[in-house]
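Morning!

This is the sequence you dropped in the shared folder:
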Amino acid sequence: MASVVYILGSITSLLCAILLFRGYRVGKRHLLLWSGLCFSGLALANLFVFVDLIVLPQIDLYPLRLCVTAASMLLLLFGLVLGEQMIHLVPFLLGVIAMASVTAAVFFLKFWKITRDTLFLAFAVFFFIDSASRVTLLFFAHPNEGSPLIYLLRLFALLFILAAILKKNYGPGA
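The structure's back. Tokens below.
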């Protein structure tokens, strides 16, 4: 029963992708293209569910399934944000970078909590500051990374990392 459900999920996603691509070919609406790409990836992810759980249960393909699904959803998000124009690209990319920086910061904070290594704490601080600076840029009328204040904040964060590296390599117990 499970294998039938997994295969039907993959086929259904693939049919959605085909119909979306067909709609794009007729109407040239970019959102249909991005949606078709998303559903193609979701069909592949559903196929990996079948392979992972039925064909090769001894091999864990869950991380691969998650990566394919995430990439598919990012394609759709990109299409939704961009739409028919590029005006929304800057806020979209700033949001992606801010999200990635927060994610990296949380991981480094976790590593610091486990090891109490100040280098991990320095990286966490840097990525939190980087994320905050990217979000701050969203409130500027014309986001400009050339803003001295933004670079000053990043400079302090980078100096914190440099100090942690020097302490780790040349400090007591190095």
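Headline: The two ends are 59 Å apart (CA to CA).

More detail when I'm at my desk.
O.
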